[in-house]
Amino acid sequence: MGGGDAGLPVTTPLRTAFDLGRKSPRTEAVVAVDALLNRRLVKRGALTDFLAGHSGWPGVTLLREVLGLAEPLTESPMETRLRLLLVNAGLPTPTAQHDVYDARGRFVGRVDLACPRLRIALEYEGDHHRERAHFRQDVARLHELRAAGWTVLRFTADDVLRQPARVVAQVAQAVRERSAHA
C-alpha cells in the first residue's frame, strides 16, 4: 500500500485486481477483474505475472479461475454476470462485444454477447435503454439484426439476478433451435 490523499492508504490497480480477484464469491471477483481489465487499469499479463510471484497467498486458486473467466471486452458488471450465468450452466461461452454484419457486409451493430456461429445475440438492457431516443435506436437495431438472420435475446437485471433459470432455459432453447439448423 502507498500513501494516498489525506493520509489514506491506497493500492495500485494491479494490487487491487489481485486482491479482489482472490475474494469470493467468484462471480463478483470476475466482475471486478473484468472492470479493471476493460478500463485498461490492469493488463492480464501483468496480473498473471503478479499472481505467479505470490503463488502462496490465500485465494490464488480462485484468482487463477477468475483469470480464466475474465473478459476485458465486457462493458458492464451485468454483462459479466449474464456471461457467467451461461458459462456456469454449461452453455457455449459467448463472445463479448461482437460486431454483426449483414449478407452484403454492411455493419448492423455490436451486440453485448454473441454465439456467432449460431447467430444468437444476447443483450443486457440496463436502465439507460428506457430513454426514448435509446429505445428507438434499440428497436431499429433489433429489426436489422433479425433481418440479418440473428436471434436476439434481451435480458434485464431482474432476469439475470432473480430469474437465472429462466435465462438459462431461454438461451439453451435458442442454442438447440439454431444448432438444429446450423
TrEMBL record:
Organism encoding this protein: Plantactinospora endophytica
Coiled-coil blocks: none
Gene3D superfamilies with a match to the protein in the record: VSR Endonuclease
SUPFAM superfamilies, per the entry: Restriction endonuclease-like
Superkingdom: Bacteria
UniProt-listed Pfam families: DUF559
Domain DUF559: 111-175
Name of the molecule in the record: DUF559 domain-containing protein
